[in-house]
């Protein structure tokens, strides 16, 4: 799971952070879903996964071998569900909707990308609903 934290750090802070910090892009996209994409991937991916790693490390120190054997299945399921849910949230909703917001922000201004007129477009509504399964995997399972 520690490697997972490093991978999410590279994706969230590295790739998406570099993407939103280019000066030309940054002028138009601050506050769009590209910013949220970077924030979710970097913060949860790096610090959230690091917190889970720390918890697992602490549990291994205080638990018996028999108890650890019982927990292995749950830890594997938790690992995959957290990562699949986070990647679904980032890839299926935040990145595509941020990419759609960027040309609109350059054409009509940032205010328009955050308006109800833009958010109620059919494709934006579909992208919001596509995020639901990934959120449910991340939160509930």
Q: Could you please describe the fold and organization of this structure?
A:
There is one protein chain. The chain is mainly alpha-helical and 141 residues long. It has one domain (2-139). Helix content is 90%, strand content 0%. The chain has helices spanning 2-21, 23-29, 33-62, 65-108, 110-113, 116-119, 122-139. Helix 1 packs antiparallel against helix 3, helix 3 packs antiparallel against helix 4 (65-108) and helix 4 runs antiparallel to helix 7. It is elongated, with a radius of gyration of 18 Å.
> C-alpha Rg, in Å?
18 Å
Taking all residues together, what is the mean pLDDT?
89
Give the biggest beta sheet: none
What's the helix count? 7
The low-confidence parts are none
In whole angstroms, how far apart are the ends?
17 Å
Shape: elongated
Lay out the secondary structure.
Blueprint: H1 2-21, H2 23-29, H3 33-62, H4 65-108, H5 110-113, H6 116-119, H7 122-139
Output the keywords.
single chain, 141 residues, mainly alpha, 7 helices, 90% helix, elongated
